[in-house]
Protein 1
Amino acid sequence: MSRPAKRITITGAAGQICYSLLFRVARGDVYGPDQPVILQLLDLPQAQAAVRGVVMELDDCAFPLLAGVMITDDPETAFRDADAAMLVGSRARSKGMERRDLLAANAEIFKVQGRALNAAARRDARVVVVGNPANTNAAILAQHAPDFPAENITSMIRLDHNRAASQLAAKAGVGVEAIERLAVWGNHSPTMFADWRFATAGGRSLPELIGDETWYRETLIPTVAKRGTAVLEARGASSAASAANAAIDHLHDWIHGTDGRWVSMGVPSDGSYGIPKGLVCGVPVTCAGGRYERIAGLTFDGFAQSMFDRTVGELAEEMAAVAAL
Ligand code: NAI
């Protein structure tokens, strides 16, 4: 283990997503089998005992790549010299809580964490926000980290992308690895738009292969949109292992590249596709050389345009609601 270790800040460390995520990151699933990692774990003061319990279990796994673990309830300490950050912790909606109060509570969390990121992380750190509302939380983080490159602050829509890829592969009767050029646009919420129009399987157009536009509109899109609720109802708890897996896919692909394959990431808008600047919006990208690049020049038909406008409109509304607070 001669390479210097990569420092990864992970928030919400006592939560259920992290109970899967931490073990996979420590095993090398983000940076690969030759790269030691140090975990810098942030959670609230009242969750510190639970984090210590998870760290005991990390110790008990004897992961060869795990070069150190730090636990803290101080955001700036957590972000110190970070090479990457996975922001999972956020305020969940409690019973009777208004949407406005939820947005306000999370805006406050991501404001504090944005300042800490700005003060303490490496300038080339890659950040993925998982905690909901993930896109808006990422936009607030960027607003409060003015000296940190905004393009390195992203949000996770990869779980929706993976959900759609899996459903499409099953319907087409192909392996999921055959699915290419799938796009998921917009907000990580039930309005997200899983767009199959450009998708292929083994080089063949997926819409032609499946040949069932009604299934696409009336089954695929709602299935992906409501998948989180379906898992919650069946399991009695929200998606955790699949969310951790998607966060790892997101960061892994950003760092290692996608070989020309499209993946979906929430990225700060550069104004393309008419997405207002200041929003962090799910778009299709490819990754190479440690950078993501938006797929440019895609066109929209009437149905796609209406789906796209709805989800981007929701993001704009969330940001306006936060601004009004
Ligand atoms: P959880 O409730 O089990 O854990 C959340 C953890 O965050 C708790 O340990 C809590 O103490 C901590 N936390 C709260 N405020 C914090 C703060 N200010 N700083 C540091 N830690 C803080 O939740 P779970 O299941 O792990 O989910 C975490 C988040 O991920 C939720 O917001 C959930 O909605 C979101 N999520 C996002 C997905 C996506 O696709 N973007 C998919 C699935 C979940």
Protein 2
Amino acid sequence: AGALTTTFLGHQVSNPFLNAAGVLCRTPEDLLQLASSVSGSMITKSCTVEPREGNPEPRYAAAPYGSINSMGLPNLGFEFYKQFAVEHRGKLLFISVSGMSMDENVKMAKDLLPVAKETGCIMELNLSCPNVPGKPQVGYDFTTMREYLQRVSSVYDAPFGVKLPPYFDIAHFDQAAAIFNEIPQVAFLTCVNSLGNGLVIDVDTETVAIKPKDGFGGLGGRYILPTALANVNAFYRRCPTKLVVGCGGVYSANEAFQHILAGASLVQVGTALHEEGPQIFQRVVDEFALLMRAKGYNTIDDFKGKLKTL
Ligand code: DOR
């Protein structure tokens, strides 16, 4: 086992890197590319009970410091991703679930549970999609979020994770963490989803970058690294019995190392994976091994969560 080997909820992974849900994981072809990449694990596109076309195109755009998207949850439907999990062999697999209602989430969780127990796949419940018109982000409504997690955990007696939106206020870190700490099945928190409802404007054309929602969409990439790191560390400090998965602004080993120092057990790559393709995992793994060696670290646990304060 190499220096980047680590374990997550009892599963060994060859390295802490995987795709961010949504990137390169919607179709069978996408998933095959991830499965054959160097990533230590992988996650499927957030699914709904029924297949969805998503929002009108263009719905993703590269921007000066990252990306903006308003995909609107295009996906092949829960049954497809569940069947993928049944047939999948090899690296650890996460299944992202993002129902259009509480009942949809409860239904998918119930149906996924036997597959999770049989195959070891792990549910990541997405409570933070910013892009479906008329559907507010559940993660910003603490009363509704508690109800979702109570209902899902009442039918799902296996460990699962929650994909969170970025929070920006210490009181919100405290309130959200208190909810997660009430629910033992919530085993990890993935911080963060895209920073919702940004607006990217091109001065030459005086036009927005994407078509849905008059150009409003979730920001990813360099724009969001410090916000992502703050959320990882805030929940790492407040939820000592949970794991944290970092997501936001990772392009190289440098940003990945920052996430792990802040407390992340795994690190997801979104915008940079979309821009560079699955070869990014080989590059980041190679860079990360060099960085660890230069710093004299032998294992991930030597520095995970060991961020110093002044
Ligand atoms: O940025 C995002 N885009 N986050 C989500 O949770 C969903 C996705 C989409 O499909 O719009």
